[in-house]
Fold these 2 entries.
Entry 1:
Amino acid sequence: MSLPRVFKVENKLAKVVSRPGGKTIKEALQSAETNIESVRDQCMTALEEKAGNLARIAGGDRGEGAMATLDRLYDVSNAIFGVAGAFGLEALAEAACSLCDVIHRFRSGESVRWSAVDVHVDGIRLLAGGLTRGADEILEGLRKVRARFVPAT
Amino acid sequence: MGATPFKGRERVNLSTAEVLIVCGDAEGLEILAQMFAGFGVHTPRRASSSAEAMVVVGERELNLVVVDSALADGDGYPFINWLRRCGSPNAWSPVVLVTGHTTPSQIIKGRNAGASFVVRKPVPPMVMMQRIVWLLNDQRAFVTSEGYCGPDRRVRSMGPPVGMKGRRHDDLSVEVGEATTPNLDQGQIDALFQPKALAR
């Protein structure tokens, strides 16, 4: 067995960032926020597509391929969570994160309850479609479903 | 944009930085690329899979790598592990791992894969910039061993565990030796705390 080696390395990021010029951090943050805002419309369209994709996947194999179905649902829901969070869509982000939590439990050995998945998928589709009235009720319902599978921390 | 923890005059020059962003979701990749372009990175390099990212690692000398935990061809963790052992200078680049739905085991997995930092989504520009500034001051040594390759996972120097000898040359002994200079008497100690009148 070889011995561990511990050694100093050059900080490759500090090497370039400290050069003269560039932006103030305030300017950099403002530019970043403006740039992200410029892709909002395309991301909103993509969120609706992802929610539709979620429903298609959920309608797939629930037998022998159930784990693969859950894996794909988790990946898409995780992507929805990331994009929704970036644009401050808190209700959609919470619903998507809740679905990830529930699927994580199912993938970790808990018996799969497809009704819990379906209700999340329906909620996510409504929220991704821009629903605002009734969003609180949807979230409240999803929180109760989640609480059945995920222990409170 | 709300209040920032940064002072108004602090600057960053990322214009010549080579930043690789790896993310399996097209929109997630777009958002991160737009963020880094806003920070001043001239051309953020994009990859959606570890296979694409490996090509970029072979072509460019990278200053920063941002990796999402979900890539088009699997998890981001094996890619970080590969990067740390790839044998090129890019192996020592700072790596920020971005996670979506996050369990404690994923944080540990990312840390053990060799990530310099793990950031949970959503990642607003302010949070990413704070991590970049932290990485600029990161003085941690690198460790290579059979089981781990990456920045020293001990962020704080707490000394070796009780009852064990340190393995690193700069680990201090837990035994405190005899003083090598005379002890200060109480008068000298008090004098250090007393305000002195300054000559005008």
Note: The two ends of chain A are 41 Å apart (CA to CA).
Entry 2:
Amino acid sequence: MTNRKSKLTAKMVLRVVVLVSGATWAFGSAFAVDYPEPGDITAGAQAWVENCTHCHNLRNPNELRDDQWITSMFHMRLKAGLTGKETRDIISFIQAANATAAQERIREEAEAASAAQQSEE
Amino acid sequence: MKSKIVVQVASVVILNLFVAHTLFAAESLEELNSELEALKSQIDKLQSESVRNREAAEWRYSDSLVHLSGYADVNYIDSESADGQFAAGKFAPIFHYQFRDLVMLESELEIEVDEDGETEVKLEYLSIDAFINDYIALVAGKFLSPIGQFRQNLHPSWINKLASAPPGFGHDGAAPVADVGFQLRGGFPIGSTRTNYALYVSNGPTLKAELEDGEFELDGVEAEGASSDADGDKVIGGRFGFHVIPHLEIGFSLASGKVTVNEVEDGDSSLLSGEGARDYDVRGADFGYQIGNLNFRGEYVETEVGATSQGVAASEGATWETWYTQASYRRGQSKLEYVARFSDFDSPHNSRDQEQWALGINYLFTISAIVKLTYELNDGEQDSEADEDRLMLQLTYGF
């Protein structure tokens, strides 16, 4: 019985080694790229629409902070079978959209404050 | 006399000069004070902006990230044989801990209140994921079954467009729910075609038998992820999906291994002895297509368990089979969404077989805060639970 178990364990280890090394050999580098590497915003916009709507309605980029999107997108990378590049592209697009939205909000706030000040004067 | 006048004029001039100088100095001082205040204000503003920018950079560029997401739902269910009742539904927090783009821990809990008011807590999944390179991630631990799409991607209530899962895709169904082991998953392009894959090795499910007229027969496949493997033989499986065109994905799933009976329904499981390992095979296919405002999807899963002549619960094999197809429509950014789904579930037990039409209308307060009204037209064995129509009202929130 013990002999059979150890044979099975050896088989399992062999399977893991073969799977990981085979897949790694097939796809190149065994090391993740440096972090955070910026992606392509235009490609990210397209990948965002094509992949996210496959399962659910599109969420607004400003629903989460930039750092929250990083974790969410790595979670979605696994769920949707995205490549690392697609993941980085989508993160860059969402963060750019967030930055634009934030700048727009800051501009609106400044305009409102300025208008309030002028009416006081 | 003349010199007296000169002295008086000189005194007046000197006095005027002194007064004028004093007044001028006072005005300059006020201006300086005002300028100083303005400078102070600007420095304070710059300092607070600097702190904000530093804090923002810390959030954005931290090596370790923590994120809490998940979903929850509350329900009202009215079926043919029972009075309508409220149900607390489910709270499913998902924890993410990530170190750079190398490692992520993710875990989902499932917290429910049962009919007696007792709180049940389950570990839906818990895995440590290593991102090996752009195309491969190693996922180890308890994970949602990669067979098909519903369990791994569509089951959260804010994503599922109806208030219930299709028959056969829940617990004790034809489609596996979760497994314990490891998997390699990711995506890669083949020319202009995007593909994704998941390959896994796991403990596999266990079997539940029941005693019927003095003979054992298979009752169900417990495929919810067990941390034990009675037969020692692992299950190997996976799914391969590809995008034929940008918004159309087709996937195929397979799994194979051995499973063993380790539980007797409404009986004494300790009587089981020398149970033989049975063949276990799962086959599946799925598709999803988004065309404009319309979304179509469908899925087929068949689980086949072989016979054995060894052990107390030796019996014939059995097959569980289910499929569904669903269409949903949401016009642009409209708050309303319309859904229709047909499902057909066949099992070795006639009382559980079910054909179902489910019709739904959803109101989206936000993208992830949705109220769903679903009506199920169920057709099963007469007088069985599977034959009862149900009206469901569900409020769900994904966060």
Note: Chain A has a mean pLDDT of 79.
